[in-house]
Amino acid sequence: MTEETALIVGASRGLGLALAEEWLTRGFRVIATARGSAPSLEDLRKRFPDRLEVEHADVLQAGTVRDLGARLKDRRLDVLFVNAGIARSNDKTPVDVQEQDFVDMMLTNALAPVRSVQLLDHLVSEDGVIAIMTSELGGITNSTGFWPLYSSSKAALNMLMKGYAAHRPDDRRAMLLVAPGWVRTEMGGEEATLSIDESIPKVVDMIAANRGKKGLRYLNRFDQELSW
Ligand SMILES: NC(=O)c1ccc[n+]([C@@H]2O[C@H](COP(=O)([O-])OP(=O)(O)OC[C@H]3O[C@@H](n4cnc5c(N)ncnc54)[C@H](OP(=O)(O)O)[C@@H]3O)[C@@H](O)[C@H]2O)c1
């Protein structure tokens, strides 16, 4: 059987780094991107020198994503996973937020991930998986108002991905908006309910379970559909 390949965009730390480690442990070849120095990723490369490739991309700089696509033009991906995201002004409202924080989240969490998918999707095999890390907080129906500005950026991400999928009715690939649960990372904070080990292996199982299932779904780590 040929080796499977996953490209993870935004893998310097936190959930992206954990996704890289999990797929490497399962025997995948992994191409992991960072936008700056990524010591943890370099440590991981020492453990998996033959199967981990570290690449550069900043999702806010479309040119770096385009260049990545050009460097990888002869590769075939089984999984493309855009993980990059930020959280700013979590407890603020439209009245007291620094507007730039909201703009930065809309660009990094909504526009840039879907643009990255559009710039890299030609690398993904016909039965591969295209995934973006969203959040349970991106669902409007069940929102409690927690982290309202960040949540809005993830709702916008979900909407942009809906548009992406709607324009590709004949695409056979699985397109997944992935909600990992509330996880203890720099972003999630210490009060988050899950460890990385309680989330990421389930996310990777869920991605595998969706391979070959055409179309867009908004899913949690248990492979359950969430309300939009
Ligand atoms: N933790 C949670 O509870 C939770 C829950 C739901 C969803 N999520 C989502 O899961 C993803 C990962 O979150 P996390 O908890 O692992 O956060 P994190 O520890 O803060 O890590 C964020 C990652 O995104 C990268 N990133 C940020 N801006 C980028 C850019 N412009 N270009 C490329 N990479 C960029 C960071 O790279 P640098 O090191 O260069 O900053 C880092 O690798 C995010 O999309 C987040 O919204 C997290």
From TrEMBL:
Family matches, as PROSITE patterns: ADH_SHORT
Protein's name in the database: SDR family NAD(P)-dependent oxidoreductase
Record-linked Gene3D superfamilies: NAD(P)-binding Rossmann-like Domain (3.40.50.720)
Alphabetized Pfam families for the sequence: adh_short (PF00106)
UniProt GO molecular function: oxidoreductase activity, acting on the CH-OH group of donors, NAD or NADP as acceptor
Organism of origin: Jiella avicenniae
UniProt xrefs under InterPro entries: NAD(P)-bd_dom_sf, Sc_DH/Rdtase_CS, SDR_enzymes, SDR_fam
Transmembrane spans: none
